[in-house]
Design brief:
Elements lengths: L13 H4 L3 H9 L7 H14 L9 E6 L5 H12 L3 E2 L3 E2 L2 E5 L6 H11 L10 H14 L4 E5 L9 H18 L3 E5 L4 H4 L3 H6 E6 L6 H12 L12 H11 L3 H18 L6 H6 L15
Parallel strand pairs: 1-6, 1-7, 4-5, 5-6
Antiparallel strand pairs: 2-3
Amino acid sequence: MTSTDYGHVHEKFRPIVLLPDNERIEFIDSPRWIGYSRANEVLDVMQGLMNKVKQHRMPNLLLIGDSNNGKTTIIQDFAKRFGQSYADEDLIVPVCLIQAPPSANEKDLYISLIDYFALPYKSSDSAGVLRAQVVHILRETHVKILIIDEAHSMLTGTARQQRLIMNAIKYLCNALQLPIVLSGTKDAVRILHTDPQHISRFDVAELPLWQNDRDFKKLVGSFERILPLKKASNLTETAILNLIYSISGGNIGNVKRLINECAIEAIKSGDEQITKKMIEDKSWLRPTRGLRKIIG
């Protein structure tokens, strides 16, 4: 058979179906962008911020959602699309994407930013010295937007430390006239309440859990279209779709993992399609308040 015979797979990915099993499994495990309306809306907002004319009070964004519900995927895709560094007269770095330090520590924030550019620093330097180094780096590389993931980590620390690190972020925004995007769980909203000024500076965009509706059906169908399986699985049939929703809890990360785990099993078993039983056997992936037991 040729790749054109696999009409249930998107034409872009049909050649993958003809690859050896191990390569198909590797393809399934590889990160891949699945576009959907809410994600595209957030990307558009971020692009608008990035292209905003510099002004005294730059708008900022806080992106929130449940853990594993697509926040990091969106900001990484944004950085991939718009953050390609290049050399002009200077090194141009349009997008700076870092992970928040594990606690509300101002110096650790500056060190994370300096590390992003792989530049040396002295950990013994004061916060003021490190801040000046960061401002110089961001200015010299013409960074157009700063993105800080895992912003809820900055809630770890005293109220004073939280105020200091948020004031540091505000300073960078003001000094460089730079839009800033924070991304984290819903708890991250609390970090804005350390100062009323932060609330007025940040718009909040939420990635809610999916409802079992037409959009969810379209999402599952999109996942199936990139699976390099030799037979159609018909995941959007009502009974199977309801089962996927029940196990995933409407969390896009859980949906992806569930479908990928089943697709890999379909290849290894030789079935070449995802069956309802395969999905039922992966019910241990269902979100719980405790640990998920794989065995026992």
